[in-house]
Amino acid sequence: LLRLLDARASDTLVCAQALQQGIVVHPLSLHALSHQAPVFNGLVLGYAQIAPEQIEIAVEKLAHIVRQLVR
Known about the structure:
This protein is an alpha+beta fold.
C-alpha cells in the first residue's frame, strides 16, 4: 500500500499511466466503503508475480509517473 499525499497525483490516473507501462497497480480510492467515508489517494501494490530484479525497475517507473503528475 502506498499513500499518495499530493492530490495532483490522482491514484486512478497513476494506475492508468502505469498500465501503459505494463505495470498493474490498483487505486486505493476504489476501496472506500461509501461515498460518505474519507477517500484516500494511493496505490495497492502487489509483487507476488514479478521477478525480484524487476521490482526496482517497476518502482522507478511508478515514481517517474508520480513526479510527472505533480509538476
